[in-house]
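Curious: why these numbers?
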Amino acid sequence: MSKPTTTRSALRRAICKRLGMPFYQRYGTVLTASTGSNTEKIVDTDLAQEDDYYNNGWVYIATDTATVNVGAIRKVDDFIAADDALLLEYPLPSAGSTGTQYEILTGFSPHEIHQAIDDALDESFPAFFNEVEDKTLVVQEDTLEYDISALSNKPWIISDVWLERSTKSQTGTVTAAASRSLTDTDVTFDSDIDTSWKIAIYDGTGAGQLKTVKSLSSNTITTATGEADWTTTPDTTSKYRVWDAAEQTHDWLRLQDCHFDQGEFPSTLYLRHRPSSSYGLRIRLNYATAPLSLDADSDVTSVPRQYVILKATELLSASRVSSSKVDREKWAVSEQLARVKAEDFKERNSFRLPTTVWLEHSPYGGSNVSNEDDPMGWR
C-alpha cells in the first residue's frame, strides 16, 4: 500500500494556519480576485477588513489563467478598504482577473515558508523516506553491470529488482535511424504496434535507450511526441526490441541473485547471470530514497504532514528568535514546543524500511531466465 502524500500548497496553508496568519484564519485557502484587478493591484470584495490591515503582507498567486503569474510573490504596499484593493509593491507579469486565485501571508514570506518545508523534509530523513518504482533501465546484451547513479531519484536502499517478461515482442538490427525514428527493412513489424508499445536499444550504438512508440509506418517506427530525441542516434550496429508493454501474460520476475557496490546509496547494480531472453526489456527497481524538495505547489511528499508542519514551524520560529527583540520570547517558546512535538512524532511514527536478503545464486535454478552461460539451467 502506498503512503499518503501531501502537496506543497496544503503544507503551506497548514503552516500558515498554525502560525496564526489572519488571512488563513478567516478564509482557510485561496480567494479569487474580482473585476478591476490589474498588474499593480488585486481587487476582491471578500476582503472586508479595515484600511492598512494587510500592509507589509505578502500576496502569493496560487493559480491563474495567466500562467506567468502562477507562483508570483508581491509585497503589499497598502490595503484600501473602500476599494477592496491590495496595492502591490511592483507589478505582476500579467493583469490579474477573475481567474486569479491568491493568498496573503503575514510575518513570513512564501519564500521562507517554502524553504522551511524543504528544510523539514531534509531533517526528516532517514526516519521518513520516499518509496520509488523505477522502470527506466534496459537489459543490455552481454552486460552484468548497470549504472544507477543517474536515476532521477537517487537510491538509498534497494528492496526489489524485477525483470520484465513479454511474449509479444520483436527484435532486430537497425538498418537506418533518425532523431525520432528507427527503421529495419529486414523485418515485417507486427501491425498491432501502437502507443502501448515500447522500443529499446539493447546493444551497439545507443544501447540502453528506452522510448515509447508513437506510430508504425511500413518498416519504420516513430517515437512518441513529447519524448526527447535519441540521445545517441542508433546505427547499423544497434540491436533493438519492440514490445507491447500493456500485454500482461507473464508477471515480472523478481531477482534475488544480484548485488550492489554498497548497501546504502549504491551507484552500481550487478547481475550474476546474463538474462538473454530479456534483452531489451526493462529492469524494475523498487527502493527507498531521501525525500525530494518541493519546487511547485502540485509537488507531493510522503513524509507525514504533521511532522513537516511541526518541523517547519520550529525552523521558522527559530529564524525569528535572533531577529525580533519584541517577540523574542514568544518565538523561543514556539520553537521549543514545535521541536519537542516534531521529535516525538518522528520517534513514534518513523517508517519501517523494506529490506531483501540478496542471494549468491538464483533461487529459480536458471529455468525462468534464459542464460547463455547455463543454457540447460543446470545451475
